[in-house]
Design brief:
With 69 residues, this protein is mainly α. It contains three helices and no strands.
């Protein structure tokens, strides 16, 4: 996760929300792929790196899920 120099959380709850949103992005994509394939799918490290690239590029979760339909 890349740190942004100008961002400073105001409270612990804000930090928790940011972390939850970060991991939720990956979890939603993983679960979407599992539903589409109808099986438990183990994603490769390359898959995770690709998802992180999408996240870092600011691609919204909704766009990723729609594109993989």
């Amino acid at each position: 996760m890349k740190a942004r120099a100008s961002f400073k959380p105001r409270s612990l709850s804000e930090v928790i929300l940011i972390v939850e949103n970060y991991f939720n992005y990956f979890t939603e994509i993983e679960e979407h792929f599992q539903r589409r394939r109808g099986t438990l799918l183990l994603l490769s490290p390359l898959d995770w790196a690709l998802m992180e690239t999408w996240k870092d590029a600011g691609i919204p979760l909704e766009a990723v899920l729609r594109a993989s339909m």
